[in-house]
Amino acid sequence: MTILITGGAGYIGSHTCVELLKAGFDIVVLDNFSNSHPESLRRVKEITGRDFNAYDLDLRNKCHVEKVFEKYNIKSVIHFAGHKAVGESVSNPLMYYRNNLMSTIVLCETMKKYGVRNLVFSSSATVYSQKADMPLGEDTGLGAVNPYGRTKYMIEEILFDIYNSDPYWSIALLRYFNPIGAHESGRIGEDPNGLPNNLMPFISQVAIGKLPELQVYGNDYPTKDGTGVRDYVHVVDLAIGHVKALLKVQSSKGVEAYNLGTGNGYSVLEMVEAFEKASGKKIPYKISGRRPGDSPVCYANVSKAKKELNWEAKRGLEEMCRDTWRWQKNNPNGYKKVLNAESIKVF
Ligand code: NAD
Ligand code: UD1
Description:
The chain is α/β, with parallel strands linked by helices. It is built from 11 helices and 14 strands. It has helices at about 10-20, 40-50, 60-70, 85-90, 95-115, 145-165, 200-205, 235-250, 270-280, 305-310, 315-330; strands at about 1-5, 25-30, 55, 75-80, 120-125, 170-175, 180, 215, 230, 230-235, 255-260, 265, 285-290, 295-300. Nicotinamide-adenine-dinucleotide (NAD) binds near residues 59, 122, 124 and 179. Uridine-diphosphate-N-acetylglucosamine (UD1) binds near residues 149, 199 and 268.
């Protein structure tokens, strides 16, 4: 029995592949490499000493996706594939609705056709209403404020409808908070295209000297030091959360949402300080205006994942910064300069 991983070459997907292979699962990866590089998969094999097949295909191509389901005895699916940049989704919403919704619909149609009904889906804390009280529990009101967030919200609704039409489905909606860090080997990590949107990749590119300084988006929020507070979670903890969610969907029926975070909030300036300590580098920064759409504070109530998935984040801020820095230092250009890419099958 094989676990199908969509978007498995990406940041969270590649770390999850490592944890699945370590746990003894057989996997097959589908990715169109629109935001990733096949080299990440070669390194997953190197880290784990295990082999698996990967296919360069777009999930919206139903004919190709069906061929994978024909070839493998797929038991469950972990669905990471999608676009994820908030700003880009605001300027090009149709690209986001087309990619994120269509790929999920094609995937679910194919799963239905082949009788595969276990699914772990990458949702996001961005689905929660910004007016909610902290910490955010899974029953908090939803209300995404940008097209990217709305694709996650819409997909969650679609998945509830699928379950309501057929109670044999088993679906976990994993609402990630702020994934950062990298595998401790320093071989796989986050490899953003162009200027990073998120705080941690921006800080680490300042530390390595690729960017001159960090812009801190506002220091007048009602928080401990006036800067935004977030729940940062180590990507390896997140990856292990997927293994736990997979075990859960394979042993029960229904649709359940789970927050994957630590339950702790750190401010932008605390992150800068922690990263300086871990890297020994000074991070020059300038306070600028608030970024439109940002909430002052966002952190999770993680008790449901602890109780029902038997999962909790184990890695602290120091480890998150140390592992990010190791990855950045060892791979200043990410995977881009690597020529010896994995040979990827194409249908
Ligand atoms: P990523 O961009 O690194 O990985 C996504 C992968 O999906 C990429 O390898 C990309 O090439 C692939 N992909 C995109 N569209 C595809 C398509 N149509 N067909 C086949 N492959 C396709 O992103 P990530 O950070 O690993 O995030 C994984 C998932 O988690 C995404 O759905 C994202 O929205 C969600 N998420 C991420 C974060 C975060 O901060 N990283 C937070 C919350 C939720
Ligand atoms: C962003 C996304 C959100 C997504 C989440 C995790 C936006 C508006 N929201 O949220 O949809 O779910 O990432 O991927 O993009 N900051 C700076 N300077 C920077 C970058 C960030 O000060 O250059 C601050 C932000 O204002 C925020 C904190 O750092 O207070 C974290 O920002 P970021 O990493 O972008 O994550 P989110 O804001 O949580």
